[in-house]
Amino acid sequence: MLVFLIRRIGHGILVLWLITLAVFGLFFVAPSNVAQSLAGRQATPETIALVKHRLGLDLPIWRQYLNFIENAAHGNLGFDYYHQVPVTTIIGQALPVTVSLALGAAVLWLLLGVFNGVISAVHPRSLADRGLTLFSLFFYSFPSFLLGLLLLYFLYFRLTLAGFEWFPAGGYTGITQELGSWVQHLILPWLALALLLAATYTRLTRGSMLDVLGEDYIRTARSKGIRESRVVVRHGLRSALTPVVTQFGIDLGQLVGGVVVIESVFSLPGLGKTAVTAINQQDLPVIIGIVLFASAAVVVANILVDIVYAVLDPRVRLH
Amino acid sequence: MTASLEMLETSAPAIEGRSPFLLAFRRLRRDKVAMVSLVVIVLIVLMAVFAPLFATITGHPPNEQYRDIGLTPDGLPRGPNGTFWLGTDDLGRDVLVRIAYGARVSLLVGVAATAITVAVGIVLGLAAGFLGGVVDTILARLIDVVLSVPFLLVAIALVSVTGPSLSITVLVIGFFSWASVARIVRGQVLSLREREFVEAARSLGAGDTRIMFVDVLPNVLAPVIVYTTLLIPVVIVTQATLSFLGLGLPPPTADWGGMISASQNYYTTAWWFILFPGLALLITTLAFNLFGDGVRDAFDPRADRLR
After folding, report:
1. What is the pTM of this model?
2. How far apart are the C-alpha atoms of B95 and B93, rounded to whole Å?
Protein backbone atom coordinates (compact mmCIF):
# COMPACT_ATOMS: atom_id res chain seq x y z
CA MET A 1 0.00 0.00 0.00
CA LEU A 2 2.81 2.41 0.91
CA VAL A 3 4.64 1.72 -2.36
CA PHE A 4 1.39 2.24 -4.26
CA LEU A 5 0.84 5.55 -2.45
CA ILE A 6 4.36 6.84 -3.08
CA ARG A 7 4.23 5.89 -6.75
CA ARG A 8 0.83 7.50 -7.15
CA ILE A 9 1.94 10.76 -5.49
CA GLY A 10 5.14 10.73 -7.56
CA HIS A 11 3.03 10.50 -10.72
CA GLY A 12 0.88 13.37 -9.50
CA ILE A 13 3.89 15.62 -8.94
CA LEU A 14 5.30 14.72 -12.35
CA VAL A 15 1.99 15.59 -14.01
CA LEU A 16 1.83 18.93 -12.19
CA TRP A 17 5.37 19.78 -13.22
CA LEU A 18 4.56 18.97 -16.86
CA ILE A 19 1.53 21.24 -16.57
CA THR A 20 3.66 24.15 -15.35
CA LEU A 21 5.88 23.65 -18.41
CA ALA A 22 2.93 23.51 -20.79
CA VAL A 23 1.09 26.46 -19.28
CA PHE A 24 4.22 28.57 -19.14
CA GLY A 25 5.07 27.72 -22.70
CA LEU A 26 1.57 28.51 -23.96
CA PHE A 27 1.17 31.88 -22.32
CA PHE A 28 4.67 33.29 -22.46
CA VAL A 29 5.42 32.38 -26.03
CA ALA A 30 2.22 34.08 -27.13
CA PRO A 31 2.64 37.78 -27.95
CA SER A 32 1.57 39.97 -25.07
CA ASN A 33 1.14 43.69 -24.87
CA VAL A 34 0.40 43.76 -21.17
CA ALA A 35 3.28 46.16 -20.46
CA GLN A 36 1.84 48.52 -23.06
CA SER A 37 -1.64 48.45 -21.58
CA LEU A 38 -0.27 48.86 -18.05
CA ALA A 39 1.92 51.81 -18.98
CA GLY A 40 -0.90 53.55 -20.79
CA ARG A 41 -1.47 54.54 -24.39
CA GLN A 42 0.88 57.50 -24.44
CA ALA A 43 3.77 55.76 -22.68
CA THR A 44 7.25 56.24 -24.11
CA PRO A 45 9.23 53.12 -25.06
CA GLU A 46 11.38 53.80 -21.99
CA THR A 47 8.39 53.60 -19.65
CA ILE A 48 7.24 50.36 -21.27
CA ALA A 49 10.72 48.92 -20.88
CA LEU A 50 10.69 49.95 -17.23
CA VAL A 51 7.31 48.30 -16.65
CA LYS A 52 8.58 45.15 -18.36
CA HIS A 53 11.67 45.19 -16.19
CA ARG A 54 9.63 45.58 -13.00
CA LEU A 55 7.40 42.63 -13.95
CA GLY A 56 10.44 40.56 -14.85
CA LEU A 57 9.22 40.26 -18.44
CA ASP A 58 12.59 41.34 -19.87
CA LEU A 59 14.31 38.22 -18.55
CA PRO A 60 14.83 35.24 -20.86
CA ILE A 61 11.88 32.84 -20.78
CA TRP A 62 13.81 30.04 -19.02
CA ARG A 63 14.91 32.46 -16.30
CA GLN A 64 11.30 33.55 -15.77
CA TYR A 65 10.28 29.91 -15.55
CA LEU A 66 12.98 29.05 -13.02
CA ASN A 67 12.02 32.05 -10.91
CA PHE A 68 8.40 30.97 -11.05
CA ILE A 69 9.17 27.38 -10.04
CA GLU A 70 11.46 28.52 -7.23
CA ASN A 71 8.80 30.87 -5.85
CA ALA A 72 6.05 28.28 -6.32
CA ALA A 73 8.09 25.81 -4.28
CA HIS A 74 8.00 28.37 -1.47
CA GLY A 75 4.23 28.75 -1.81
CA ASN A 76 4.44 32.02 -3.73
CA LEU A 77 2.63 32.11 -7.07
CA GLY A 78 3.68 35.70 -7.87
CA PHE A 79 1.75 38.96 -7.84
CA ASP A 80 -0.99 40.20 -10.13
CA TYR A 81 0.12 42.79 -12.71
CA TYR A 82 -2.38 45.47 -11.79
CA HIS A 83 -2.51 45.79 -7.99
CA GLN A 84 0.52 43.73 -6.92
CA VAL A 85 -1.72 41.48 -4.80
CA PRO A 86 -0.23 38.01 -4.18
CA VAL A 87 -1.89 35.45 -6.46
CA THR A 88 -2.28 33.13 -3.48
CA THR A 89 -4.36 35.86 -1.76
CA ILE A 90 -6.57 36.19 -4.86
CA ILE A 91 -7.08 32.42 -4.98
CA GLY A 92 -7.73 32.40 -1.24
CA GLN A 93 -10.51 34.95 -1.66
CA ALA A 94 -12.14 33.23 -4.62
CA LEU A 95 -11.86 29.65 -3.36
CA PRO A 96 -14.60 29.79 -0.66
CA VAL A 97 -17.09 30.96 -3.31
CA THR A 98 -16.26 28.10 -5.66
CA VAL A 99 -16.20 25.57 -2.83
CA SER A 100 -19.59 26.80 -1.54
CA LEU A 101 -21.00 26.47 -5.03
CA ALA A 102 -19.52 23.03 -5.68
CA LEU A 103 -20.30 21.42 -2.34
CA GLY A 104 -23.88 22.70 -2.14
CA ALA A 105 -24.57 21.55 -5.68
CA ALA A 106 -22.88 18.23 -4.93
CA VAL A 107 -25.35 17.47 -2.13
CA LEU A 108 -28.25 18.21 -4.49
CA TRP A 109 -26.98 16.23 -7.47
CA LEU A 110 -25.99 13.23 -5.36
CA LEU A 111 -29.45 13.08 -3.78
CA LEU A 112 -31.16 13.59 -7.13
CA GLY A 113 -28.90 11.27 -9.13
CA VAL A 114 -28.71 8.38 -6.68
CA PHE A 115 -32.43 8.52 -5.87
CA ASN A 116 -33.44 8.54 -9.54
CA GLY A 117 -30.91 5.85 -10.34
CA VAL A 118 -32.24 3.54 -7.65
CA ILE A 119 -35.85 4.07 -8.75
CA SER A 120 -34.85 3.32 -12.35
CA ALA A 121 -32.92 0.18 -11.41
CA VAL A 122 -35.65 -1.23 -9.20
CA HIS A 123 -38.14 -0.96 -12.06
CA PRO A 124 -36.03 -1.29 -15.21
CA ARG A 125 -37.78 -0.48 -18.52
CA SER A 126 -40.79 0.82 -16.63
CA LEU A 127 -42.46 4.14 -17.35
CA ALA A 128 -40.68 5.66 -14.34
CA ASP A 129 -37.32 4.42 -15.64
CA ARG A 130 -37.87 5.88 -19.10
CA GLY A 131 -39.27 9.11 -17.69
CA LEU A 132 -36.32 9.61 -15.34
CA THR A 133 -33.81 8.80 -18.09
CA LEU A 134 -35.46 11.37 -20.34
CA PHE A 135 -35.57 13.89 -17.49
CA SER A 136 -31.89 13.56 -16.71
CA LEU A 137 -30.81 13.52 -20.36
CA PHE A 138 -32.90 16.65 -20.93
CA PHE A 139 -30.98 18.62 -18.33
CA TYR A 140 -27.71 16.93 -19.28
CA SER A 141 -28.18 18.32 -22.80
CA PHE A 142 -28.54 21.90 -21.54
CA PRO A 143 -25.63 24.22 -22.19
CA SER A 144 -24.86 25.50 -18.68
CA PHE A 145 -25.27 29.16 -19.62
CA LEU A 146 -28.70 28.51 -21.12
CA LEU A 147 -29.94 26.69 -18.02
CA GLY A 148 -28.54 29.48 -15.84
CA LEU A 149 -30.27 32.17 -17.89
CA LEU A 150 -33.51 30.19 -17.89
CA LEU A 151 -33.47 29.86 -14.09
CA LEU A 152 -32.71 33.57 -13.81
CA TYR A 153 -35.57 34.43 -16.14
CA PHE A 154 -38.23 32.39 -14.37
CA LEU A 155 -37.09 32.30 -10.75
CA TYR A 156 -35.57 35.75 -10.50
CA PHE A 157 -37.15 38.01 -13.13
CA ARG A 158 -40.68 36.52 -13.35
CA LEU A 159 -40.98 35.89 -9.61
CA THR A 160 -39.70 39.33 -8.69
CA LEU A 161 -42.09 40.86 -11.22
CA ALA A 162 -44.90 38.90 -9.57
CA GLY A 163 -43.91 40.36 -6.20
CA PHE A 164 -41.91 37.46 -4.78
CA GLU A 165 -38.35 38.63 -4.20
CA TRP A 166 -37.04 35.21 -3.22
CA PHE A 167 -33.91 34.97 -5.33
CA PRO A 168 -31.37 37.68 -6.19
CA ALA A 169 -30.07 38.17 -9.75
CA GLY A 170 -26.58 37.15 -8.69
CA GLY A 171 -23.71 38.05 -6.40
CA TYR A 172 -22.37 36.43 -3.26
CA THR A 173 -22.43 36.84 0.50
CA GLY A 174 -19.95 34.98 2.65
CA ILE A 175 -21.28 32.14 4.80
CA THR A 176 -19.75 33.77 7.89
CA GLN A 177 -21.40 37.12 7.13
CA GLU A 178 -24.97 35.99 6.88
CA LEU A 179 -26.06 32.38 6.51
CA GLY A 180 -29.53 33.13 5.10
CA SER A 181 -28.20 35.46 2.45
CA TRP A 182 -25.47 32.95 1.55
CA VAL A 183 -28.10 30.29 0.86
CA GLN A 184 -30.34 32.75 -0.99
CA HIS A 185 -27.55 33.78 -3.35
CA LEU A 186 -26.48 30.22 -4.04
CA ILE A 187 -29.78 28.37 -4.50
CA LEU A 188 -30.13 29.09 -8.22
CA PRO A 189 -26.48 28.30 -9.09
CA TRP A 190 -26.71 25.13 -6.98
CA LEU A 191 -29.85 24.09 -8.80
CA ALA A 192 -28.33 24.78 -12.21
CA LEU A 193 -25.15 22.84 -11.49
CA ALA A 194 -26.97 19.95 -9.83
CA LEU A 195 -29.43 19.51 -12.72
CA LEU A 196 -26.56 19.54 -15.22
CA LEU A 197 -24.56 16.89 -13.37
CA ALA A 198 -27.29 14.64 -11.93
CA ALA A 199 -27.70 12.72 -15.21
CA THR A 200 -24.26 11.12 -14.95
CA TYR A 201 -25.09 9.88 -11.47
CA THR A 202 -28.53 8.60 -12.40
CA ARG A 203 -27.00 6.50 -15.18
CA LEU A 204 -24.09 5.33 -13.04
CA THR A 205 -26.28 4.37 -10.08
CA ARG A 206 -28.80 2.66 -12.36
CA GLY A 207 -26.18 0.57 -14.14
CA SER A 208 -24.32 -0.48 -11.03
CA MET A 209 -27.54 -1.16 -9.10
CA LEU A 210 -28.77 -3.40 -11.92
CA ASP A 211 -25.54 -5.39 -11.71
CA VAL A 212 -25.67 -5.68 -7.94
CA LEU A 213 -29.36 -6.61 -7.77
CA GLY A 214 -28.62 -9.60 -10.01
CA GLU A 215 -26.08 -10.97 -7.50
CA ASP A 216 -26.69 -14.15 -5.54
CA TYR A 217 -26.43 -12.52 -2.13
CA ILE A 218 -29.35 -10.26 -2.99
CA ARG A 219 -31.46 -13.33 -3.72
CA THR A 220 -30.26 -14.79 -0.43
CA ALA A 221 -31.27 -11.64 1.41
CA ARG A 222 -34.69 -11.70 -0.24
CA SER A 223 -35.19 -15.38 0.52
CA LYS A 224 -34.44 -14.68 4.16
CA GLY A 225 -37.57 -12.55 4.13
CA ILE A 226 -35.92 -9.17 4.54
CA ARG A 227 -38.12 -6.26 3.49
CA GLU A 228 -37.58 -5.26 -0.15
CA SER A 229 -36.74 -1.65 0.74
CA ARG A 230 -34.08 -2.88 3.14
CA VAL A 231 -32.66 -5.28 0.56
CA VAL A 232 -32.41 -2.48 -2.01
CA VAL A 233 -30.88 0.12 0.29
CA ARG A 234 -28.77 -1.85 2.76
CA HIS A 235 -27.62 -4.76 0.63
CA GLY A 236 -27.85 -3.33 -2.87
CA LEU A 237 -27.12 0.37 -2.78
CA ARG A 238 -24.23 0.00 -0.39
CA SER A 239 -22.08 -1.99 -2.77
CA ALA A 240 -23.45 -0.26 -5.86
CA LEU A 241 -22.11 3.09 -4.67
CA THR A 242 -18.40 2.40 -5.36
CA PRO A 243 -18.39 3.74 -8.95
CA VAL A 244 -20.54 6.67 -7.80
CA VAL A 245 -17.97 7.61 -5.15
CA THR A 246 -15.20 7.43 -7.77
CA GLN A 247 -17.06 9.65 -10.19
CA PHE A 248 -17.91 12.04 -7.37
CA GLY A 249 -14.26 12.53 -6.44
CA ILE A 250 -13.26 13.16 -10.04
CA ASP A 251 -16.15 15.59 -10.61
CA LEU A 252 -15.38 17.60 -7.47
CA GLY A 253 -11.76 17.97 -8.57
CA GLN A 254 -12.83 19.09 -12.05
CA LEU A 255 -15.33 21.61 -10.69
CA VAL A 256 -12.61 23.77 -9.08
CA GLY A 257 -11.65 25.01 -12.53
CA GLY A 258 -14.83 24.01 -14.33
CA VAL A 259 -17.57 26.27 -13.03
CA VAL A 260 -16.50 29.20 -15.21
CA VAL A 261 -19.85 29.61 -16.91
CA ILE A 262 -22.16 29.23 -13.92
CA GLU A 263 -20.04 31.71 -11.96
CA SER A 264 -20.15 34.16 -14.84
CA VAL A 265 -23.91 33.90 -15.34
CA PHE A 266 -24.67 34.33 -11.63
CA SER A 267 -21.87 36.89 -11.00
CA LEU A 268 -20.24 34.74 -8.33
CA PRO A 269 -16.68 35.97 -7.63
CA GLY A 270 -15.22 32.44 -7.55
CA LEU A 271 -12.12 31.01 -9.23
CA GLY A 272 -13.76 30.73 -12.65
CA LYS A 273 -14.97 34.31 -12.84
CA THR A 274 -11.69 35.60 -11.40
CA ALA A 275 -9.84 33.68 -14.09
CA VAL A 276 -12.04 35.06 -16.87
CA THR A 277 -11.44 38.60 -15.62
CA ALA A 278 -7.71 37.91 -15.50
CA ILE A 279 -7.81 36.49 -19.02
CA ASN A 280 -9.51 39.63 -20.32
CA GLN A 281 -6.80 41.75 -18.68
CA GLN A 282 -3.94 39.43 -19.74
CA ASP A 283 -3.02 39.17 -16.08
CA LEU A 284 -0.67 36.21 -16.61
CA PRO A 285 0.34 35.41 -13.00
CA VAL A 286 -3.32 35.15 -11.98
CA ILE A 287 -4.22 32.98 -15.01
CA ILE A 288 -1.27 30.65 -14.46
CA GLY A 289 -1.91 30.52 -10.71
CA ILE A 290 -5.56 29.56 -11.10
CA VAL A 291 -4.90 27.06 -13.91
CA LEU A 292 -2.22 25.39 -11.80
CA PHE A 293 -4.37 25.40 -8.69
CA ALA A 294 -7.30 23.88 -10.57
CA SER A 295 -5.04 21.24 -12.14
CA ALA A 296 -3.64 20.42 -8.71
CA ALA A 297 -7.21 19.94 -7.47
CA VAL A 298 -7.84 17.40 -10.26
CA VAL A 299 -4.57 15.59 -9.57
CA VAL A 300 -5.20 15.42 -5.82
CA ALA A 301 -8.80 14.30 -6.35
CA ASN A 302 -7.61 11.51 -8.66
CA ILE A 303 -5.06 10.32 -6.12
CA LEU A 304 -7.70 10.30 -3.37
CA VAL A 305 -10.07 8.37 -5.62
CA ASP A 306 -7.34 5.82 -6.37
CA ILE A 307 -6.62 5.41 -2.67
CA VAL A 308 -10.29 4.92 -1.84
CA TYR A 309 -10.51 2.43 -4.68
CA ALA A 310 -7.42 0.54 -3.54
CA VAL A 311 -8.81 0.33 -0.02
CA LEU A 312 -12.15 -0.98 -1.33
CA ASP A 313 -10.67 -3.33 -3.93
CA PRO A 314 -7.21 -4.79 -3.14
CA ARG A 315 -6.77 -6.06 -6.71
CA VAL A 316 -6.21 -2.49 -7.94
CA ARG A 317 -2.95 -2.17 -6.02
CA LEU A 318 -1.26 -4.87 -8.09
CA HIS A 319 -1.45 -2.86 -11.32
CA MET B 1 -29.64 -41.38 -43.77
CA THR B 2 -28.11 -39.36 -46.54
CA ALA B 3 -31.57 -38.46 -47.80
CA SER B 4 -32.67 -37.01 -44.47
CA LEU B 5 -29.45 -35.04 -44.22
CA GLU B 6 -30.04 -33.55 -47.63
CA MET B 7 -33.56 -32.67 -46.61
CA LEU B 8 -32.26 -30.94 -43.52
CA GLU B 9 -29.82 -28.96 -45.58
CA THR B 10 -32.41 -27.73 -48.00
CA SER B 11 -35.13 -26.96 -45.46
CA ALA B 12 -32.93 -25.11 -42.96
CA PRO B 13 -32.71 -21.37 -43.66
CA ALA B 14 -29.35 -20.19 -44.84
CA ILE B 15 -27.24 -19.22 -41.85
CA GLU B 16 -25.98 -15.70 -42.23
CA GLY B 17 -23.05 -14.34 -40.30
CA ARG B 18 -24.10 -11.46 -38.11
CA SER B 19 -21.33 -9.20 -36.93
CA PRO B 20 -21.68 -7.37 -33.60
CA PHE B 21 -22.09 -4.17 -35.62
CA LEU B 22 -24.99 -5.60 -37.60
CA LEU B 23 -26.63 -6.79 -34.38
CA ALA B 24 -26.15 -3.38 -32.79
CA PHE B 25 -27.52 -1.68 -35.88
CA ARG B 26 -30.63 -3.87 -35.77
CA ARG B 27 -31.17 -3.12 -32.10
CA LEU B 28 -30.73 0.58 -32.83
CA ARG B 29 -33.31 0.49 -35.62
CA ARG B 30 -35.90 -0.89 -33.18
CA ASP B 31 -35.21 1.94 -30.71
CA LYS B 32 -38.00 4.46 -31.34
CA VAL B 33 -36.49 7.30 -29.32
CA ALA B 34 -33.17 6.94 -31.14
CA MET B 35 -34.89 6.87 -34.53
CA VAL B 36 -36.93 10.00 -33.78
CA SER B 37 -33.72 11.70 -32.63
CA LEU B 38 -32.03 10.67 -35.84
CA VAL B 39 -34.86 12.27 -37.87
CA VAL B 40 -34.44 15.48 -35.86
CA ILE B 41 -30.68 15.42 -36.49
CA VAL B 42 -31.30 14.97 -40.22
CA LEU B 43 -33.71 17.92 -40.18
CA ILE B 44 -31.11 20.12 -38.48
CA VAL B 45 -28.50 19.05 -41.03
CA LEU B 46 -30.95 19.92 -43.83
CA MET B 47 -31.57 23.31 -42.21
CA ALA B 48 -27.83 23.95 -42.18
CA VAL B 49 -27.33 22.79 -45.75
CA PHE B 50 -30.26 24.81 -47.07
CA ALA B 51 -29.66 27.89 -44.89
CA PRO B 52 -29.46 30.14 -48.01
CA LEU B 53 -32.96 28.96 -48.89
CA PHE B 54 -34.25 30.53 -45.66
CA ALA B 55 -32.63 33.79 -46.73
CA THR B 56 -34.21 33.55 -50.18
CA ILE B 57 -37.70 32.69 -48.96
CA THR B 58 -37.82 35.42 -46.32
CA GLY B 59 -35.83 37.79 -48.50
CA HIS B 60 -33.55 38.60 -45.56
CA PRO B 61 -29.79 37.93 -45.86
CA PRO B 62 -28.35 36.72 -42.53
CA ASN B 63 -26.25 39.81 -41.83
CA GLU B 64 -28.61 42.47 -43.22
CA GLN B 65 -29.60 44.96 -40.50
CA TYR B 66 -33.17 46.23 -40.91
CA ARG B 67 -32.86 49.26 -38.67
CA ASP B 68 -36.12 50.74 -40.01
CA ILE B 69 -38.58 47.83 -40.17
CA GLY B 70 -36.66 45.38 -37.95
CA LEU B 71 -36.49 47.58 -34.85
CA THR B 72 -39.15 49.40 -32.85
CA PRO B 73 -38.97 53.21 -32.77
CA ASP B 74 -37.12 52.82 -29.43
CA GLY B 75 -34.48 50.69 -31.15
CA LEU B 76 -35.63 47.42 -29.55
CA PRO B 77 -35.94 44.05 -31.35
CA ARG B 78 -39.31 43.31 -32.93
CA GLY B 79 -41.30 40.20 -31.99
CA PRO B 80 -42.38 37.48 -34.41
CA ASN B 81 -44.58 38.85 -37.20
CA GLY B 82 -45.43 38.30 -40.86
CA THR B 83 -42.14 39.71 -42.10
CA PHE B 84 -39.82 38.36 -39.43
CA TRP B 85 -41.27 34.96 -38.50
CA LEU B 86 -39.17 34.48 -35.38
CA GLY B 87 -38.61 38.19 -34.67
CA THR B 88 -35.45 40.26 -34.99
CA ASP B 89 -32.31 40.66 -32.90
CA ASP B 90 -30.78 43.76 -31.31
CA LEU B 91 -29.48 44.99 -34.69
CA GLY B 92 -32.71 44.32 -36.58
CA ARG B 93 -31.53 41.10 -38.22
CA ASP B 94 -33.84 38.17 -38.97
CA VAL B 95 -33.57 35.63 -36.10
CA LEU B 96 -34.91 32.70 -38.19
CA VAL B 97 -32.35 33.16 -40.96
CA ARG B 98 -29.54 33.58 -38.45
CA ILE B 99 -30.58 30.40 -36.63
CA ALA B 100 -30.41 28.49 -39.92
CA TYR B 101 -26.92 29.86 -40.62
CA GLY B 102 -25.92 29.25 -37.00
CA ALA B 103 -26.67 25.53 -37.49
CA ARG B 104 -23.81 25.46 -40.01
CA VAL B 105 -21.30 26.65 -37.40
CA SER B 106 -22.53 24.26 -34.69
CA LEU B 107 -22.56 21.20 -36.95
CA LEU B 108 -19.31 22.04 -38.69
CA VAL B 109 -17.44 22.52 -35.41
CA GLY B 110 -19.23 19.52 -33.88
CA VAL B 111 -18.22 17.17 -36.68
CA ALA B 112 -14.75 18.59 -37.44
CA ALA B 113 -13.56 18.77 -33.83
CA THR B 114 -14.99 15.33 -33.06
CA ALA B 115 -13.29 13.86 -36.13
CA ILE B 116 -9.89 15.28 -35.13
CA THR B 117 -10.40 14.16 -31.54
CA VAL B 118 -11.28 10.60 -32.49
CA ALA B 119 -8.57 10.25 -35.13
CA VAL B 120 -5.81 11.49 -32.82
CA GLY B 121 -7.23 9.58 -29.86
CA ILE B 122 -7.35 6.28 -31.76
CA VAL B 123 -3.83 6.55 -33.18
CA LEU B 124 -2.20 7.60 -29.88
CA GLY B 125 -4.30 5.17 -27.82
CA LEU B 126 -3.38 2.29 -30.15
CA ALA B 127 0.29 3.25 -30.08
CA ALA B 128 0.39 3.55 -26.28
CA GLY B 129 -1.49 0.33 -25.62
CA PHE B 130 0.11 -1.81 -28.30
CA LEU B 131 3.72 -0.65 -28.37
CA GLY B 132 4.00 -0.30 -24.59
CA GLY B 133 7.37 0.56 -23.07
CA VAL B 134 8.67 4.11 -23.35
CA VAL B 135 5.97 5.10 -25.85
CA ASP B 136 3.27 4.06 -23.42
CA THR B 137 4.92 5.78 -20.46
CA ILE B 138 5.22 9.09 -22.31
CA LEU B 139 1.74 8.96 -23.83
CA ALA B 140 0.12 7.88 -20.55
CA ARG B 141 1.65 10.89 -18.74
CA LEU B 142 0.58 13.16 -21.61
CA ILE B 143 -2.98 11.85 -21.29
CA ASP B 144 -2.87 12.53 -17.53
CA VAL B 145 -1.65 16.08 -18.15
CA VAL B 146 -4.33 16.91 -20.70
CA LEU B 147 -7.07 15.41 -18.54
CA SER B 148 -5.92 17.35 -15.46
CA VAL B 149 -5.87 20.79 -17.06
CA PRO B 150 -9.05 22.84 -16.53
CA PHE B 151 -10.15 22.66 -20.15
CA LEU B 152 -12.53 25.60 -20.41
CA LEU B 153 -10.20 28.02 -18.60
CA VAL B 154 -7.22 27.19 -20.78
CA ALA B 155 -9.41 27.19 -23.90
CA ILE B 156 -10.67 30.69 -23.10
CA ALA B 157 -7.16 31.89 -22.35
CA LEU B 158 -5.80 30.42 -25.60
CA VAL B 159 -8.58 31.82 -27.79
CA SER B 160 -8.24 35.24 -26.16
CA VAL B 161 -4.53 35.24 -27.02
CA THR B 162 -4.81 33.93 -30.59
CA GLY B 163 -8.05 35.73 -31.44
CA PRO B 164 -11.28 33.89 -32.21
CA SER B 165 -11.75 31.96 -35.44
CA LEU B 166 -13.38 28.76 -36.66
CA SER B 167 -10.14 26.81 -37.02
CA ILE B 168 -8.85 27.88 -33.59
CA THR B 169 -12.10 26.72 -31.98
CA VAL B 170 -11.86 23.34 -33.69
CA LEU B 171 -8.18 22.92 -32.83
CA VAL B 172 -8.56 23.94 -29.18
CA ILE B 173 -11.49 21.57 -28.65
CA GLY B 174 -9.68 18.74 -30.44
CA PHE B 175 -6.46 19.38 -28.54
CA PHE B 176 -8.15 18.94 -25.17
CA SER B 177 -10.52 16.09 -26.04
CA TRP B 178 -8.34 13.43 -27.68
CA ALA B 179 -7.02 12.23 -24.32
CA SER B 180 -10.34 10.66 -23.25
CA VAL B 181 -10.56 8.68 -26.50
CA ALA B 182 -6.91 7.68 -26.22
CA ARG B 183 -7.47 6.46 -22.68
CA ILE B 184 -10.45 4.30 -23.70
CA VAL B 185 -8.58 2.82 -26.67
CA ARG B 186 -5.39 2.25 -24.65
CA GLY B 187 -7.27 0.40 -21.93
CA GLN B 188 -8.91 -1.93 -24.45
CA VAL B 189 -5.74 -2.53 -26.44
CA LEU B 190 -3.75 -3.42 -23.30
CA SER B 191 -5.86 -6.55 -22.90
CA LEU B 192 -6.41 -7.22 -26.60
CA ARG B 193 -2.71 -7.41 -27.46
CA GLU B 194 -2.30 -10.48 -25.25
CA ARG B 195 -4.97 -12.40 -27.18
CA GLU B 196 -4.24 -15.31 -29.52
CA PHE B 197 -5.35 -13.61 -32.72
CA VAL B 198 -2.58 -11.05 -32.33
CA GLU B 199 -0.07 -13.84 -31.90
CA ALA B 200 -1.54 -15.58 -34.95
CA ALA B 201 -1.21 -12.44 -37.03
CA ARG B 202 2.37 -12.02 -35.90
CA SER B 203 3.24 -15.63 -36.74
CA LEU B 204 1.88 -14.98 -40.23
CA GLY B 205 4.47 -12.24 -40.53
CA ALA B 206 2.33 -9.14 -39.97
CA GLY B 207 4.11 -6.02 -38.77
CA ASP B 208 3.14 -3.79 -35.83
CA THR B 209 1.30 -1.23 -37.95
CA ARG B 210 -0.73 -3.85 -39.74
CA ILE B 211 -1.67 -5.68 -36.53
CA MET B 212 -2.60 -2.39 -34.84
CA PHE B 213 -4.88 -1.08 -37.56
CA VAL B 214 -6.15 -4.24 -39.25
CA ASP B 215 -6.42 -6.73 -36.38
CA VAL B 216 -6.74 -4.74 -33.15
CA LEU B 217 -8.56 -1.58 -34.25
CA PRO B 218 -11.87 -3.23 -35.29
CA ASN B 219 -12.10 -4.72 -31.80
CA VAL B 220 -11.99 -1.35 -30.06
CA LEU B 221 -14.38 0.41 -32.43
CA ALA B 222 -17.59 -0.26 -30.48
CA PRO B 223 -16.75 1.85 -27.40
CA VAL B 224 -15.20 4.47 -29.66
CA ILE B 225 -18.38 4.74 -31.75
CA VAL B 226 -20.45 5.12 -28.59
CA TYR B 227 -18.09 7.74 -27.23
CA THR B 228 -18.05 9.60 -30.55
CA THR B 229 -21.82 9.96 -30.81
CA LEU B 230 -21.91 11.29 -27.27
CA LEU B 231 -18.94 13.60 -27.90
CA ILE B 232 -20.63 15.55 -30.72
CA PRO B 233 -23.18 17.27 -28.44
CA VAL B 234 -20.45 18.03 -25.90
CA VAL B 235 -18.39 19.70 -28.63
CA ILE B 236 -21.40 21.67 -29.88
CA VAL B 237 -22.07 22.93 -26.35
CA THR B 238 -18.39 23.81 -25.88
CA GLN B 239 -18.37 25.83 -29.08
CA ALA B 240 -21.56 27.62 -28.02
CA THR B 241 -20.04 28.27 -24.58
CA LEU B 242 -16.93 29.84 -26.09
CA SER B 243 -19.20 32.04 -28.22
CA PHE B 244 -21.29 32.90 -25.21
CA LEU B 245 -18.16 34.07 -23.38
CA GLY B 246 -17.36 36.31 -26.36
CA LEU B 247 -14.78 34.00 -27.93
CA GLY B 248 -16.81 32.51 -30.76
CA LEU B 249 -16.63 33.56 -34.35
CA PRO B 250 -15.92 37.20 -35.13
CA PRO B 251 -19.13 39.16 -35.91
CA PRO B 252 -21.25 39.35 -37.96
CA THR B 253 -21.13 35.53 -38.40
CA ALA B 254 -24.32 34.01 -36.99
CA ASP B 255 -23.83 31.35 -34.34
CA TRP B 256 -26.16 30.14 -31.60
CA GLY B 257 -23.96 30.80 -28.58
CA GLY B 258 -23.22 34.30 -29.80
CA MET B 259 -26.93 35.02 -30.39
CA ILE B 260 -27.80 33.88 -26.87
CA SER B 261 -24.97 35.98 -25.46
CA ALA B 262 -26.26 39.08 -27.29
CA SER B 263 -29.82 38.40 -26.17
CA GLN B 264 -28.86 38.48 -22.47
CA ASN B 265 -29.43 42.22 -22.22
CA TYR B 266 -32.86 41.93 -23.83
CA TYR B 267 -34.35 38.90 -22.15
CA THR B 268 -36.78 41.03 -20.17
CA THR B 269 -38.12 42.72 -23.32
CA ALA B 270 -37.48 40.35 -26.22
CA TRP B 271 -38.15 36.74 -25.22
CA TRP B 272 -37.97 35.45 -28.81
CA PHE B 273 -34.40 36.68 -29.14
CA ILE B 274 -33.19 34.20 -26.50
CA LEU B 275 -35.90 31.54 -26.80
CA PHE B 276 -35.44 30.49 -30.43
CA PRO B 277 -31.62 30.26 -30.57
CA GLY B 278 -31.76 28.59 -27.14
CA LEU B 279 -34.32 26.07 -28.40
CA ALA B 280 -32.27 25.39 -31.54
CA LEU B 281 -29.20 24.64 -29.42
CA LEU B 282 -31.11 22.57 -26.87
CA ILE B 283 -33.00 20.50 -29.47
CA THR B 284 -29.74 19.77 -31.29
CA THR B 285 -27.83 18.62 -28.21
CA LEU B 286 -30.83 16.69 -26.91
CA ALA B 287 -31.28 14.88 -30.23
CA PHE B 288 -27.60 13.93 -30.34
CA ASN B 289 -27.64 12.79 -26.71
CA LEU B 290 -30.78 10.68 -27.10
CA PHE B 291 -29.39 9.15 -30.28
CA GLY B 292 -26.04 8.52 -28.59
CA ASP B 293 -27.85 6.93 -25.67
CA GLY B 294 -29.60 4.59 -28.11
CA VAL B 295 -26.28 3.73 -29.76
CA ARG B 296 -24.80 2.92 -26.36
CA ASP B 297 -27.70 0.66 -25.49
CA ALA B 298 -27.44 -1.03 -28.88
CA PHE B 299 -23.76 -1.84 -28.34
CA ASP B 300 -24.16 -2.82 -24.70
CA PRO B 301 -24.82 -6.55 -24.45
CA ARG B 302 -26.12 -6.04 -20.92
CA ALA B 303 -29.04 -4.06 -22.28
CA ASP B 304 -30.36 -7.25 -23.86
CA ARG B 305 -30.71 -8.98 -20.53
CA LEU B 306 -33.45 -6.56 -19.51
CA ARG B 307 -35.67 -6.92 -22.51
Report:
1. 0.86
2. 6
